[in-house]
Structure formats: C-alpha cells, structure tokens
Amino acid sequence: MLRFLSIGVAIKKLFLLSVFLVLSYALGYGQKYNIKTYSVNDGLPSSFVYDVIIDDMGLVWFATSNGVVKYDGEDYKNYDTEHGLKDALIYDIHKDIKGDFWVSTEFGGVARLENDIFVYPEELKDIDTLVINHITNAPDGTLWFGSTEKGVFQWDEEGALTQIISEENGLPDNQVWDISFDEEENAWISTSSGTAVYDDEISFVREFTNKNGLEGELTYHVHFASDGKKWVSTSNGVSVINKDFSIENITEIDNRPLGYVYSITEDNDGVIWIGTEMHGLYWLDGDNYTRITKKNGLSSNDIYRLIKDDKGTIWIATEGDGVNIFKDQEFQIYDSSSPLDANIVYSAIKASDGTLWFGTENGLSSYKNDTFTNYTLPSLFFEEDEIWDIEEMSNGNLIMLTYDYDLIEFDGTNFYHPDFFDELYPYYISDIFTEDDGTMWFTAFQALLKYKDGKLEEFTPPDEEYWQTDLGFITKDSRGYYWIGTELGVAQFDGQEFKYITKEDGLEGASVYDVREDDRDHLWVGTNRGISVFYDFDEDGMPKESIEFLTLDFYLQETIFLQFDQYGNLWQGTNGGMNYYDLEIWRGHRVVQQQHFPFNDYGHGIEFNGWASLIDDEGRLWFGSNSKGLIVYSFPEGETKIEKEAPPGIFLREVLANNQPIFQPGTGNETQGMIETSYDRNNLNFRFNAIDYKYPNRIVYEYKLDGLDEKWIMARNIQEVRYTNVPPGTYELLIRAKSIKSDWSTVQNLASIKIEIPFWKTTWFLILCFILSILLALFFMQYYIDRKEKRDLKRLVDDQTKDLQSALIEKEVLIKEIHHRVKNNLAVVSGLLELQSWNIEEGIAKNAIQESKMRVLAMSKIHENLYQNDDLAKVNFKKFLEDLIESVAETMRKPDHEIDLDLDVADVPMNVNIGIPLGLMVNEIVSNSFKHAFNTTKKGHIQISFEKNGTNYKLEIKDNGVGSQENVLDINSSSLGISLVKSLASQINGKVSFLGEDGAHFTILFSDLKFSS
Fold first, then answer.
1. The CATH number fitting domain 874-1013, selected from 3.30.1490.190, 2.40.50.100, 1.10.240.10, 3.30.565.10
2. pLDDT of 725-763, one tens digit each?
3. Phi first, then psi: what are they for 999, rounded to 5°?
4. For residue 705, what are the contacts with CB-CB under 8 A and spacing of at least 6?
5. Any idea which architecture 1-27+339-460 has in CATH?
6. How far, in Å, CA of 336 to CA of 342, rounded?
7. Rounded distance, CA 180 to CA 191, Å?
8. Other CB atoms closer than 10 Å to residue 638's CB: what's the count?
9. How far out from the chain centre does Cα 808 lie?
10. Whole-model pTM?
C-alpha cells in the first residue's frame, strides 16, 4: 500500500530545519532506584520508625512512634498500650539470645513480650523511670541497657540489675545512644560526648571524643567494617578509626556537609552505607560515592537507622516516612523527574562514537560522558515528537522514523528530511536497518526497500498469506542473511527471495518481534508466545533444528525485545516486566534459570518497547520502557551473573474446617502434629503466607493436597487454598514457593490433617454390623421357624377350636335342652303338686304342698331363664325376678286382698349358682308376706329392691304388714321357710338380717368374690 505526496509535504521538504531546543543535563543525582517503601499507606500505624528487627522466622518487627508492629508479609499486628506498654513511642527493640523481645519506650523502663503481652519485669523496677535508648546482649549473654541519664546497666542470669558503666568509671557522658561489641568482645559505647571502649572485664580502655580526633561531639553508633576499621556516626559527619587508632574524618562529600549521621552499615559487596539526618543516604565504595535522596526514590532524606538482615537486605528506617529497602540495587531508572525528562522511550541506538541516542515521547535524547542532552523537534513541521526508530547513517548522521511514518535526518544540529524522502514517502515504513557500507533497508507494508548509492530498489514478499506481507523489524545475521519479523512468522531474505518459518514449523508464536544472534551463532526469535532458538543452519542459511526456550508460564510471554549482555546472559523485555536468563545453565542442562523484574508493585510489570534496548561500551544495559523511562543495569564489579536470592519461607497461619478454626499456630511456623477433624467438617481452608519483603505481592506457589490432588497446582499471590467435601482420610498439604528472584523452595509439609471416618465406616462398626447381621439372620431364621410353628400350631388349634366350637355348640344345645327338660319336669312336678292339693282340704298339708309347688316353680323359672339366654352360666336376674314375683303373686294373692308389688331390681347378669338360691329366698320371703303379713288388713305393699355396688350385692324385701317384734330368724328356726332362707344365704356366703317394727324387712348381703372363693 502506497501513500501519496501532498502539497504540504512538498513545501515541508524545502526547508532546512535548524530551530530546535537543546537542553543538556549532567547526570548528577537524577536517576531513580527500584525501592520498596513501607509506611502508613501500607499498614504501619506510624511512619516514624526507629528500629527494625528480623526474627528467626523472617518476620519483621518495627519500633514506631505508635507501638511495636509485627509484619509477616501480609498482615500488620500492632502492640501498644492495650498490650501492656506504658506508652506507644518505642525507642528501641531487641531480640535476646533466648528469643525474647524487649522494648524501651518514652516513659521509661524496659518491657518483655510474654504470651503476646508486654510485661515490665519486677527485677528491673530500678530502671522503670529511666529512658533506655539501647538494649543489647553482651557476649556473655547478659543484657545491657544504655540509659539517657545513668550510663549502662547490666542484668545477669541471676536477675541482678547493676549499674556497671557511668561517668564515674570513664564514660564520657551518661547519655548512652548505642552499645556495640567487637570481635575481641570489647564494648564500644556511643554517648553524647564521644565513644568509650571497655574490655570484657568492664575495664576502661580508651575514649574517642572531639578533643582527641573526632569531628563531632555526639556519637550515635559504631560500625565494625569488614576491613577492621570502625566507622563512627557523629553529630558532624563520620569518623573512621583505623586499626592503629588513628582517625580520619569525613564531614562533607562533594562540598556538601554530612551534618548529623545516625547510622552506618556495610552491604555484602563491602560498600559503606551512611544515613544522614537531612541529606539522605550515601554509598561509599572506596573513593567513589553515590548519594541517594528523595529524588532518587527514597521516601525521606532523614535516615534514622540502617539495619542489615541475614539475607543482606538493608532496611532504611526514616523519621516520618516509613522504611525503605532496595529491590534491585543495580538498577537505575531515568524518567521524567531525571535529566532524561521522559517516561516513555521508544527507540535506542549506540552510535559509532559511543554516544547513546534515545527516541522518547518528547523527541530525541543523547547520553555521553554522564550527561543527558534533550532535543525537542520543531513543532512547525513535526506535530508529534515520538521517534520509534533510530539508525546511524554512513555519514554519521541519524535517520529516525516517527510514529506517523515520517523520516527525519539529524546531523547533530539540524533536523530535516533526507534526500530520498520523496521516494520513500508513498510507503508506510515500519523499521530501518543500516549497514556499514551505507546500504539502508526499510521494511514497509507489502514491501522491502533497499536504498544504496542514491538508488531505491523494492522487493515484494509473496502474497499467499496477507499477514506475511506486513513486514516489521529487520536485522542481519553473521551468515549474511536478513531476518524480518511479520505477523505470521519470521521471513529469511537472501537478497532476492523470501523464505518463511511459521508456527507450523515449530515457531513458538505467530507474531515475531525480535531476532538476536548469540556468540554461538544461534538465532533467538522473540514471538508473542515466547522464545524459539534456531541452530544448525544449512547452506541456504535456514535452520535445521529449533528448540523451544521454555519460560515460566505465569509471566507474560509476549517478547517485545531480546538483548544479550556482555557475559552471554539473555534479557527479555515483555509487556509485563523484564526477564533475565542464565543461559550457561540452560545450555548445559536445558534448565531455565529465570528471574523476573516487574519494576512496579501491581500487575505483571511495566511494559517495555521494542527497538529500545542496547549495551554500551562499559557493559551497561539500557532498556526503554513505556512508563518508567530508561532502566539501566550495571553488573557489580567482579560479577558476571545475577545470583538468585534465597527462596521465601512459608508458614501456616490457620486451618479452618467449615469456616471454623481447628488450628492456629503462634508466632512463626512451629511444628504441629496431626490436625484432626470430623467427617462432617470436611470443607477445609488452609491459610498461609510466604515472606518476600521486596516483592510481597509477587510470590508464586505450587501446592497439592497429597492424598487428594494428583498433580501440582500453580498459583500466584495467594494466601489461602480451599478444598470442599474432602473424603475421610489422612492428607498432607505440600507446598513450595518462589519469589521473582529465587528458585523454588524445598517442598514443605505445611499441614497434616486427618478427617475421621464416619462411625458407620469404622472397623468396629463394620464388625458390629457383621455380628448384628448374623444375629439378625439368626433372628429371622428363628422368627421364620417360630412363625412356621405358630402357623402349624394355629392350624392345629383352629382345627381343634373348630371341633371344640362344634362340641360347645352341641353342649350348649344339650344344656339348653337339659334346662328345658328340667323346667318342664319341674313344671310337671308343680302340676302334680297342684293336682294333689285339690284332693286335700285346707290345712297344714295343703299349705305344705302349696309351698313346695312354689319352690319348684321358682327353680323352674331359673331353668326357663337359662335356656332362653345365650349365656348358659348366667341368668338375667331382673327378668327372672320379675317373672318369679309375678308367678308368686298370681298364686298367693287372695281375691279379697289388694296387695301392691314394687320391684326395683338392677339389670345385672347373675351367676346361676347365686341366682337359684336368691330366687328360692325371694320365693320364701314373698310367699311368707302374702300368707302372714296382711291377715289383719286387705291392702298391703311389698317392696323388692336389688342393687350392686362394686362386687357387693344387696337384696331387700319388705312389706307394710303386721311385722313382728321378735327376730324371726332366731325364734322360727324350726320353720322350714326360715330355715331354708338361712341355709340358702349361707350357701352363697351371704348374710340375712330382719327388722319387724313396721312390717317385715329382710336384707340379704353377699359378694360374688366371696362366692367365687
């Protein structure tokens, strides 16, 4: 595709553009460093930090103006007055040889941390009112306390507190700031009037003050350097005490006074670090120095203390702006706040004279002799200053490509269009490549252009694939072949013909952004999906072999540029940070040693720009980024590789089951036994943390719950893993971690957990179920047998019952027939007696026959009632009595007498063995009333009542006749009727009573229980 020349462009090329702005800046202190800051914005309760301690587990303890803070890389825990402290302004924090933490505060005394509470020991009450500036352990294990007013106190193992050093035994001043012990166990005590030295016997050795060599009066700290020198922090710079005790003073650097120096330390490379009150931090490396201030990335210029941890990291405690640590000390950053004055660098080139040229968002910048010079392109003709590519022409001028495809030539003074501008204007240029013989190559959309000796030649790529015609960067290998990146593979061009290598041929990604050749003539191809390596080339310059350069897939793989350093290590710029690879290990073992540098605290990392990396004549690496300007790396002297740091430690925070804690360790990662939980609490949460204070949010984990997970699971920046519905069993949470600058840690069993088997799956329960099954089987077998026997027995009983019922029916019929026949026979007897009485005259004989007839009739009524009942054993006594009385009345009532009968009889069934005697007694008594009670009157009344109360019965028969003044039961014992009544009452175990005052009144009481017995 061509673009057409406009009138404006034609006019534009007529002018020589010499009006531009040039600004030069000496390098000075403009660069920034990759620094991590911890302050109130990150969770500290105060940004005034006076001391820092790293404990054995790697946890950080900060002494702040608002309490002691413990930080584990994720959470901050603050200890203040609610945790036992007198006040929250912490002067010093110390971890003794036993592992106990001690602090001193503004209100005096020292406190020890016990069970997460600070306690002031009773043995130290004598210093409770003294302000303690420093706490330390002496070589003999005793604790030493440096006070503000009374020198040094010692506390021994027996608990005795003693003032051991003061002005009385040679101390220059009783206000003690620091106590340090050298290799010979001498104590160097810094005071407000100098430093004194005491031997291990606490005998005064010597003193150093401003009267005998020190420049400052106040001394705050003594650092013992690796070369044997003592560096003393003073109120007027630094004093260096040599081995012969001669003193060298450093009061200013680069004509700038140091002023108050509070702390000095030394890094692992032997560089001395000096922290000043107002002037920031200084590095002294022999005779060379570097000053770092807020302009270079520090949070404050007021340095209170420098603390070096076991990994060599130096913590910079400031007074008011938190704590700083250098993430990568060898990296320097030049951005808009530096002499570069730009945050975006699109392109870079090293010219033949060693000058470095950079295309930025603001135009063009050069770097030479530690000085940046910035050139602003004239806005009259160049609306945008973005320079996307820079190359050096054979005449020494620069040719540049802008974002809108303009070509600009620069001779060091003037900007203008090159002579061949008109010829190239119709093309959309992507990249420029210049050769030593003056040949220039231009890649464009659907065209490769060669310009040499004033002649432009065009090569058209094959158009079978559209995206292969969109040509990007171009470079040349040592075999003389050109390599061109496209959106569909990489093209090799031999001067006449294009040959392509695509993803189908083994290329990592379809889009190719850079190709670099190493010192072994291998080609490294950077794609949108990673890196491929070509080697073993044929006679046509095409690779016979290729290999995938496996990188860690949790970092972005899109390769923006590739850059080899002077030691053969590979640097990969991506759209999410930069990666460093140690190729020596990879070539020997095909193991990728990768370190990642994100240059920010979020996301994958900053974005880098293509064609913006180079190595200068001093071996420094320069990388152009899309937000941080230029990032420069220098290998420390004597080093050829970036050594990996120790992997982060991992500790367990908490284990939860169904969101309820089942394990909570204390401080650190103490050993725990098996954690147990029930089968129904099987939703597990493991909370943990790994410590990397430089990049706390960039830790990568691999973990698996051994016993459940088959494969390792990789995750970034997590503090918790969850498992739901975990089946019963025993499991181990295996985990390892790596920071962006370390290898993987060793696999660690972070937690062992046992989920109990449900009781119905336990061995004892299964055995019990087996036994119960057998018992149940036996039960059902016995039940079946019993049921079968019962069925057989029932069948037998049913048959027998049927027979018995038949027999019973026959018996009932027979008994009824018997009762009927007995009744009939008694009726016959009664009739015979009636016939007999007809032939007998009135008198005793006739009365006797008549009475006998009545008695026979009574018995007949009983049998009549029985055979008419369904129940042959019981008689309906009410009906029986009514029929009986009616018969007696019919027989005994005299024609001229009017006798009323009143029956009140309960309707109850009566046993036949009781009914017959009762009927006979009623017959005798009622007959007697009809015969004798109404001889003097023709009217009368006979009342008969029968009632039941529980098991007791009461029969009453009374009339209103003549009665008797005597008890007839006693005087008429010779009477057959009375004898019969008494005999029948005795037969049913009853009792008969008689009253005769107002007529005859018989009462018969009996019980069916008595009768039954």
1. 3.30.565.10
2. 999 999 999 999 999 889 999 999 999 999 999 988 888
3. 105, 170
4. 721, 723, 726, 731, 732, 733, 734
5. 7 Propeller (2.130)
6. 4
7. 12
8. 6
9. 85
10. 0.72
